[in-house]
Amino acid sequence: MKRLAERPAPTHLRHWGDWLIYGLLRLFLLLPYPVLMWFGTGMGRVFRWLSASRRHVVETNLRMCFPEQGARARAEMAKAHFEAMGRGLIEASLAWWGTDRKLAARGEVVGLEHLDRALEQGGVILLTGHFTTLELAARYVAMQRPFHAMYRPLDNLFWDVVTTRAREAQSCRPSVPRRDLRALIKTLRQGGAVWYGPDQTLSHRNSAFVPFFGVQTLTLTATSRLAAMGRAQVVPFYPVRLPGDRYRVIFEPPLADFPGEDPLADTRRITASLEAAIRRCPEQYFWMHRRFKKRPEGAAPIY
Fold it and tell me: Which of 4, 138, 152, 178 has the most neighbouring CB atoms within 10 Å?
């Protein structure tokens, strides 16, 4: 499979601002880790006050998913989420361009034997969700085992090229275009491991409403189909940001008897796994996404 990052970075004059930001960012990442995290936390706090619309989405999502929590507790969770998002932006940059020396001692991967056991039998779908530590978690996995990342093009060509190049350099494997089903199935059948996060969709295609924190939520049902077509096992893994600027990536055992006979039941099972992981660190999940924008027929809009 050809690496998407073999494309050259755009050199047209209109991208001079992108090149400037890129250079400054690479210099910025040379700062000590605590300083970078302090800056990221500050960015999250500023964004929280500047973006009333995103604040509304986050607060609404938390109210729907954690009705048992009091208003004050949810407000604190929302505040912590924006701080986590700010840190996540810095962590993504570190994941792409930070050195192993800067990162290795801060992260650990638990349960790697589950992935190894699955890889001995063929391809693997690395099942996870959209956490604020998503990019850095992928970097820690790549330090241990190579894998392919699902790829969705960015609107900005410059950043599309440089970030894809960075991901492929760290994962040691070419990216798999999100809409290229043939390439994805081929990769799995050849014994590759592919990152896959099915927890964000606004399309009814290959989706169904299943409970997510007790709310009927439009969710992708394609995992069962991909596992069957790719003859692959599904291995869940989830990241956690720990105190002291440390990280843990947790691999769980491969899903037994998956896929089953009912794709809807499989989707409920996957969603329950994700929900359990979110409850370990709720502020670290990506609550800015309008997960409940699509509603069952006749249900009132949430946002």
Answer: 138
Is residue 151 in a domain? yes
CA end-to-end distance (rounded Å), the chain:
42
pLDDT per residue, tens digit, the chain (303 aa), is: 545 555 556 666 677 788 898 899 999 999 999 999 999 999 999 999 999 999 999 999 999 999 999 999 999 999 999 999 999 999 999 999 999 889 999 999 999 999 999 999 999 999 999 999 999 999 999 999 999 887 777 778 887 888 888 888 776 576 777 778 898 999 999 999 999 999 988 788 889 999 999 999 999 999 999 999 999 999 999 999 999 999 999 999 999 999 999 999 999 999 999 999 999 999 999 999 999 999 999 999 999
Classify residue 294: in a domain, yes or no.
no
Domain assignment present for residue 79? The answer is yes
Q: How many domains does the chain have?
A: 1
CB–CB of 138/171 below 8 Å?
Answer: yes
In a domain, 170, yes or no: yes
What domain range includes position 269? 4-284
